[in-house]
Amino acid sequence: LQRWLEQRDIVARFIEPGSPWQNGVNESFNGHFRDECLNRELLESALEAQVIAHAFRDEYNDIRPHSSLDYRAPSEVRAELLKQAAGSGQA
Q1: What are the residues whose beta carbons fall under 8 Å from the beta carbon of 69, sequence distance 6 or more?
Q2: How far, rounded to the nearest angstrom, does the alpha carbon of residue 73 sit from its chain's CA centroid?
Q3: Virtual torsion, Cα 6, 20, 73, 39, nearest 10 deg
Q4: In this structure, are residues 61 and 55 in contact, taking their beta carbons and an 8 Å threshold?
Q5: Per-position b or e across 29-45, b if 16+ CB within 10 A of its CB
Q6: Which regions of the chain are under pLDDT 50?
Q7: pTM for the whole structure
Q8: Nearest 5°: phi and psi at 6?
Q9: What is the structure's pLDDT at 48?
Q10: CA distance 85 to 20
């Protein structure tokens, strides 16, 4: 990964170990992923883990209500924004 970053002139910024407050969004997602996905499954293979993780991702990104969106699903917010953009001529 470090070689790939260097080839693209990307500078990685690392947080201090044990400092979740430096990246709260990621830490919040990691907690939800562990509690709502990984801790509920007995994974038999890497393929099964990928399938379950993809299903969780799809639900999390499209269906599951988020407190930051006034407990609406991202798909609802996306549809509302697209409707507003279409009416404004900026879609």
Answers
A1: 76, 77
A2: 13
A3: 100
A4: no
A5: eeeeeeeebeeeeeeee
A6: none
A7: 0.60
A8: -65, -40
A9: 92
A10: 36
Among 38, 64, 62, 39, CA closest to 52: 38
Amino acid at 90: Q
* Helix, strand, coil share (%) of the chain residues, nearest 5: 70, 0, 30
Q: What is the pLDDT of residue 6?
A: 92
- Please work out, in degrees rounded to the nearest 5, the angle formed at the alpha carbon of residue 29 by the alpha carbons of 37 and 23: 150
Predicted local distance difference test score (pLDDT) of residue 89: 67
Residue 91, pLDDT score = 53
The structure tokens listed for 42 are 């007995």
Helices and strands (H and E) in the chain: how many: 4, 0
What pLDDT is attached to residue 90?
Answer: 61
Confirm if 32 and 60 have CB atoms less than 8 A apart.
yes
